[in-house]
Amino acid sequence: MLSETWEDQYRRMHRQYDLLKRTADQNKFEEIHEMPRARDILYHFCCDAFHLRDWILNADGLSQNIKDAVEKFVPKGNPNPPSLALAICADIANGFKHLNLTHPKVYTPGGPAEVVEHTQGSTFPRTFPHHFSANHWKIRTRVTGVEYNALDIAKDAVDAWDAWLPNNGLPLPT
User: What is the spatial distance between Cα 6 and Cα 55, in angstroms, rounded to a whole number?
Assistant: First the structure.
């Protein structure tokens, strides 16, 4: 894979997160504000955040302790996952891959989590100039019906990785 490493996957996740934030920026208008493109960016962010786990699991040169720790960090079927945001990203990534999650074990408690609403519009407070093409998403757990803002989940997922990596002896890639 072009000699890429888990560090490259980490950087990819951050690039997608930056794009995702730009899709919700009401003070800029770009091609990424188009709803299909913005939705792609959300789905790809969730995949990149979730798959960082696999990149670490399959990385050469990392200890078995780190690999065991990352499996516990994003576990399937845990009623109290260490990172709810990463559990939600995992369900969205798998739902995006398969269209529907039908297996009994999902990542999100009360899940699976799924994107249920995508709207565009301006929010308050507003600064000028602004436009009405900023993207917003709701994520809901299928069983419990708990709703989340997708941008909050994305921020929490990035923050979770940014805390987990150094806590497990892996420096944050620059």
Answer: 5
